[in-house]
Amino acid sequence: PASFALPQVARESADSQRGTAIHAYLATGDLAAVPEDLRALCGAIDLDALPAGESEIAYSWDPVAGRGERLGSLAGHRDYGRAPGLIYATADRVRAGYVGDYKTGYCYLGAPPAANLQLGFLALASSPDGCRVELLHVAEDGAIRAEGADLDAIDLAGVADRVRGIVARVTAAQEQYAATGRVDVREGAHC
Questions:
Q1: Is the dihedral of CA 12, 78, 56, 129 positive or negative?
Q2: Each residue's pLDDT tens digit, 127-137
């Protein structure tokens, strides 16, 4: 969290561009808009087999009030507006009581669905009384494998506590940086 007190550098890679293109196809179904090198993979995806719901729906969550808000589809990719004090995220696939997140790469994906903070946060913002969450792994042959968990209100209260703890650590680091011009960060596998 301390690194969030520092100026941020946006970086794109071939892998991130690949993931963005696949996500866009899964949201729109527009194969003509997919880069040529990804058309075979995207064309093999059975869009009718995707979980029911809407694609690319943004949410905000207020850690003080403990309340989420549906922002809907955004005009630009991750164009949240950034009101002070709110935390933002976009659900790849969502409906009442369900959040799905597409994973298109080969990197380490972190925690399983029940402990995945990204999924937990989206569930907290969209369905705070309980939610089915799924990682939707997109394979090279177009197959989608779902890995899921059910989170109840108690699980989501734990997610809220984790998020508030992160916010507190980021705020402390921002205050330290403002006062001293430096902040203690550690480089590691998470970087």
A1: positive
A2: 999 999 999 99
Residue 190 DSSP code: T
52 has a pLDDT exceeding 60:
yes
Question: 3-state class of 10 per DSSP?
Answer: coil
Dump the DSSP string for 64-129: TTTEEEEEES-SSTT-----TT-EEEEEEEEETTEEEEEE-S-S---S-GGG-HHHHHHHHHH-TT
* Cα–Cα distance for residue pair 29/43, rounded to 1 Å: 9
**Dihedral-angle region of residue 84 (phi above 0 means left; psi in -120 to 50 means alpha; beta otherwise):** beta
Pairing of strands 98-103, 144-152: unpaired
CA distance 113 to 147: 7
Predicted confidence (pLDDT) per residue in 94-113, tens digit = 999 999 999 987 665 668 89
pLDDT in tens, 5-35: 778 787 888 888 899 999 999 999 999 999 9
CB burial of residue 26 (10 Å; 0-12, 13-18, 19+): buried
Alpha carbon distances (Å) from 75 to 23, 71, 72: 16, 11, 10
Three-state DSSP state, 185 = coil
